[in-house]
């Protein structure tokens, strides 16, 4: 994982904390890149020798502000520093590269695609990006940056996974607390998705294995992806109604538990796909999908997962819908994670594309007006100077 820019670095930091807290091994290697020294110093879990400051000759460690063109320029100028840090990573131990960046600022939105292009040139592993769209109240320049960066990330990566802040900020919430909460939401969803691709699941055995190849195959073909998530807390065995069902040890109770497990799974799959996606879109017309059910193994069964997978096929119209389980030892919840890849019917993308078109038209108008004014000044100056010669 490469966290580029302020938002990217903070989300990377959150992923590393998630690994430590859950005992996962999602992040095989971490690298934080930024043009602002203070942002790098503020990270808590990224090792200091895995932090790269770029653009020092241009911005002296103070960042590029919201200038993503400058962010791209300094990334190109200092790409050797970034790639040298990458050389220390044993590429044969990773399944893919993931660049994490906020798409509204300057460093990540400009520099992230540059790094992606160079990674794809050197390595055979897939290069993905996790791009965070700014909320609409952050200002026009951030929306414009996101419109530009969005197109560049799609072009330079094997798939762009998107999280739209506009759909997640709560009314009345402060900017800082809002983003901290959003970062946790991002890591919770993508952490379960990427964690399912691990070979070892803490001693738990998966009935329908979802390995890294399933995730890679779902993301194949490029484009844009979104993730849905739904979870439900489960009762401990020794308390509540569940323990009473199991009290007499009859076979009828086992069948009742199986039915409840299946119904819970299918319900969570529907909630995940039709609820709040990381990037809101219509689920029909999706090219590929992946369903991951996470939780203690006894609350997961093949029948429920297969029913959920078939329901996803019907809803998306895709013939490439994969499904499997991610057993978690000692967990107190069951969760459904749905990865929808190759989405097309996305209002937010259309809005960004329109912003980009209008911005380019405005830039052209300003440039034309400037040229006319310059011509006018030159002509006026000549008229005034001619009598002096």
TrEMBL record:
Organism: Halomarina oriensis
Domain Tubulin/FtsZ GTPase residue range list: 2-202
Residues at which GTP binds: 6-10, 106-108, 138, 165, 183
UniProt cross-references to CDD domains, sorted A to Z: CetZ_tubulin-like
Gene Ontology cellular component terms for the protein in this record: cell division site; cytoplasm
Predominant place of localization: cytoplasm
Gene Ontology molecular function, alphabetical: GTP binding; GTPase activity
HAMAP family linked to this entry: CetZ
Keyword annotations of the record: Cell cycle, Cell division, Cell shape, Cytoplasm, GTP-binding, Nucleotide-binding
InterPro entries: CetZ, CetZ_C, FtsZ/CetZ, Tubulin/FtsZ-like_C, Tubulin/FtsZ_GTPase_sf, Tubulin_FtsZ_GTPase
Protein name in UniProt: Tubulin-like protein CetZ
GO biological process, any: cell division
Annotated function: Involved in cell shape control.
